[in-house]
Amino acid sequence: MNRIIYVLLLCVAIYTVMNNAGAPPRQQVQGIAHVHDGDTFTVAGVKIRLFGVDAPEYDQTCKMPDGSNWACGIWSRDQVRRLLKGRELRCVKRTYDKYGRMVARCYLGDQDLAEMLARDGIVFSYASFSHDYIAVEKQAAVAGRGLWQAEVMSPAEFRRQKRQN
Question: How distant is the alpha carbon of residue 152 from its chain centre?
Fold first, then answer.
């Protein structure tokens, strides 16, 4: 009888450990965002990569029409910080990337954050992963909004060149 009780207790202990260790990842997070760059931030302790868009890298520069360099990566980050400052952001998981970040669609109220940022020329659509924001990006480009006022390299190309050097 003692042996049966011991085995049952052991099974309960193993089940408890396995159940907690295998807890499903969060499907949604909500809170005030801490912005790292134009497409990456932390919400409620979860690092988020915004789905469907790509922002200039922090150290990326763009060339203005007068030939001067513009710290467009810092500008993109600062624009997102300004927009999100003190506001509640809700992010819904799509997947996780190779860096362990939650790739998510995020919303300010009922507005799609990525769409807002692409429409204002703060980020680029990331056509390798989604076609959702190409049309609003084109509108920003035609209007010369945000990043589109300068000669800018895609962030993906900037990262590729940086790896080669």
Answer: 20
